[in-house]
From TrEMBL:
UniProt cross-references to Gene3D superfamilies, sorted A to Z: 3.60.21.10
Residue ranges of every copy of the Calcineurin-like phosphoesterase domain listed in the record: 1-211
A Pfam family recorded for this sequence: Metallophos_2
Record organism: Ideonella margarita
InterPro entries, sorted: Ap4A_hydrolase, Calcineurin-like_PHP_lpxH, Metallo-depent_PP-like, Pesterase_MJ0912
Family: Belongs to the metallophosphoesterase superfamily. YfcE family.
Name by which UniProt lists this protein: Metallophosphoesterase family protein
PANTHER family documented for this protein: BLL5683 PROTEIN, METALLOPHOSPHOESTERASE
């Protein structure tokens, strides 16, 4: 079975549609969404409705910090422009869309897999996996051999051996990586809706459960259109510029 792992969609309709089309074309049989459906982009309602349709068909969907900011209250750590977009987003959503965000769990487990937005050690505190220290701390917090998380907008793969030896690397898009279960793995697919590694192409990953391989993908999309919609909505122009440069 192939499982598509999609995170940090950030209300970017063009990127999300491109990723979903790519995953379908590459044989995805199930989907997991790792949070932050809203924030930064101009199409929060469309993204929520789209993810909800996948959830109704059996997909996993956990909540992120931007989702909690819209359905509850913004985190004090959020930057001013992120808080501004959250306030704007709250005015764009209907009651059922807000309820979908409110009902998202912080984490979910399924067949030796943990799905969470930020980390496994303190999901509600939204701490980032910035390197091996945080990755190992997260892996120590679960017995699952596979942890999938978002929050960091750059694709990365961490692993931990049974003897405690940790490693990490930046994956090459399109190259299948063996991920045997004698190690623990922490997968950060990268952001579908707002990549920040200097490459504007949308990110996602595909986990082949049968073959025990993981493939990271980059998917070009019309970031100019997505950016133009951000500006037309009256949101900060810098958010459109970030899409064009992958920053």
């Amino acid at each position: 079975m192939k499982l598509a792992l999609i995170t940090d969609l950030h209300a970017n309709r063009e990127a999300v549609q491109a990723v979903l089309d790519h995953a379908h074309a590459h044989g995805a049989q199930r989907y997991a969404f790792l949070g932050d459906y809203v924030g930064y982009g101009a199409d929060p309602g469309w993204v929520i409705d789209t993810v909800r349709r996948y959830v109704d068909a059996g997909a996993i969907a956990v909540g992120g910090n931007h989702d909690a900011g819209v359905s509850e209250a913004p985190s004090p750590q959020m930057r001013p422009e992120a808080r501004l977009v959250i306030e704007w987003t709250q005015q764009q959503l209907n009651a059922s869309q807000l309820e979908f965000l409110t009902s998202r769990p912080l984490s979910a487990t399924d067949n030796d897999m943990l799905f969470v937005h930020a980390n496994a050690f303190a999901p509600a505190e939204w701490e980032y996996i910035q390197g091996r220290i945080e990755a190992v701390r997260s892996l120590h917090a679960t017995t699952c051999h596979y942890t999938f998380c978002g929050h960091m907008h750059e694709p990365k793969l961490f692993h931990l051996s049974g003897t405690g030896k940790a490693g990490d690397f930046v994956p090459t898009p399109g190259v299948a990586i063996p991920v045997p279960p004698h190690r623990q793995w922490l997968v950060v697919p990268g952001s579908a809706g707002q990549p920040r590694d200097g490459n504007p192409a949308a990110c996602y990953a595909m986990f082949h459960l049968t073959d025990q391989t993981l493939t990271f993908h980059r998917v070009p999309y019309d970031h100019d259109l997505a950016g133009a919609k951000i500006i037309a909505a009256g949101l900060p122009p810098r958010l459109a510029e970030r899409l064009a440069h992958g920053q």
